[in-house]
Specification:
Blueprint lengths: L42 H13 L2 E5 L8 E5 L1 H5 L3 E5 L3 H16 L9 E6 L2 E7 L5 H4 L1 H6 L7 E5 L11
Parallel strand pairs: 3-6
Antiparallel strand pairs: 1-2, 2-3, 4-5, 5-6
Length: 171
């Protein structure tokens, strides 16, 4: 179980292209988010954005490795629904993708989640809690979201699940 406030991934502190570049955004000329019709996109970027445009969000899943847990996160929820993006850690890849998609479907249906909210609707038999993600962790985790939003500010929530005894990492 990982709390993003405790999570450090130096090898993930780069963009989806392998380097993290800070750049100053011009709010008058730079788009708020990227579109599949943007001329500068490669094939993978265009495909991801088309899928995001069809659903309203995209879920990126990062596999666990020998030093880091797997995780999955959304991008597009903030633009489509004015809702924070969502991230989850430490479950099987398919499970995390399903959970983030379930959260997004609830949001599309009108549910709004905030930091501190508890829900029983996502993992059978478990109450999960949403926690605010500090933006200092975005470069380590939300690489596609940062690219999508052109490194602009966007809010994010971590969905935290308890252990089998119902305890959260901070308990």
């Amino acid at each position: 179980r990982i709390l993003l406030s405790e999570f450090r991934l130096s090898r993930w502190s780069f963009s989806k292209r392998g380097t993290f570049r800070e750049r100053v955004m011009n709010p008058y000329t730079d788009p708020v988010s990227r579109r599949s019709t943007d001329a500068s996109l490669d094939e993978t970027e265009r495909d991801v954005l088309k899928r995001r445009e069809e659903r309203g969000w995209f879920v990126n899943v990062i596999a666990e490795d020998e030093v880091s847990p797997g995780f999955a996160y959304s991008f597009g929820l903030y633009e489509e629904f004015s809702h924070p993006e969502v991230i989850i850690f430490g479950l099987p890849k398919d499970t995390m993708q399903t959970i983030v998609n379930d959260v997004a479907n609830h949001i599309r249906a009108g549910t709004k989640y905030s930091a501190g909210d508890r829900t029983n609707d996502l993992i059978d038999g478990y109450t999960c809690i949403f926690r605010e993600v500090n933006p200092v962790h975005y470069a380590e985790t939300f690489t596609w979201a940062m690219w999508f939003y052109s490194n602009r500010n966007f809010p994010a929530l971590q969905l935290v699940w308890p252990d089998k005894q119902g305890r959260f990492p901070w308990e």
